[in-house]
Amino acid sequence: MMPELIPILSAAELRRLVLDLAQRIEADYRGRNLVLIGVLKGSFVFLSDLIRQLGMPVKVDFVQASSYGNGTESSGHIRLSKGIGLDIRGQDVLVVEDIVDTGLTVRWIIDYLTSLQPRSVTVCALINKPARREVDVPIAYAGYVAGNGFLVGYGLDYAEQYRHLPDVCQLNL
Ligand code: 5GP
């Protein structure tokens, strides 16, 4: 059977959502030195739209964290496969994440970045999936609250497929 793709967020809805997040971030950080840290790979489309809606200069870097295990669930054992290159000491840092699900990945990334002594670390997530949260993580800017379905498109993949889709869709295998 063919996998089924059910649209959840259209390109137009994503544009509105990203603009709203950008305006809130800009209002809070205007005049400060903000460093956006994108979490590879899923956040790259979101981050590229977000920086173009922010009416202020920002620096950008990326981290990549892999969780051991496979499939569609986070195992909770996180490994850093790419750390940051920028010096963030004393800077305001905003972690730009695609989805916060169990919270384990972003918790780990917050702890890693905090060890580099920034002035502050906050989180912006395009999609918040609170139902399966295992650790408490503060998400200062959350775009859309989703249920438990597995989402693809707008940078999000399943086995490296579907990242190119302009909409966020639920994948039913
Ligand atoms: P965590 O469970 O640690 O909060 O999330 C780990 C990672 O799993 C997220 O950064 C995200 O990349 C990925 N993830 C969680 N839910 C989904 C989903 O519905 N679709 C895709 N493509 N990735 C997801």
Structure characterization notes:
The chain has one domain (11-147): 3-Layer(aba) Sandwich (Rossmann fold), CATH 3.40.50.2020. It is 23% helix and 33% strand. It has 3 helices and 9 strands; from the N terminus they run E-H-E-H-E-E-E-H-E-E-E-E. The chain has helices at residues 11-29, 44-53, 104-114, and strands spanning 4-9, 34-40, 59-67, 78-82, 92-100, 120-128, 141-145, 151-152, 168-172. The structure holds guanosine-5'-monophosphate. The site of guanosine-5'-monophosphate (5GP) has 20 residues, from strand 5, helix 3 and strand 8. Guanosine-5'-monophosphate binds at residues 39, 42, 74, 97-106, 129, 150-152, 156-158.
| Widest sheet, order of strands | 4-3-2-5-6-7
Q: Identify the CATH class.
A: Alpha Beta
| Rg estimate, integer Å | 16 Å
**What ligands does this structure carry?**
guanosine-5'-monophosphate
Oligomer: single chain
Low-confidence spans:
none
Q: What is the β-strand count? A: 9
Structural class call reads: alpha/beta
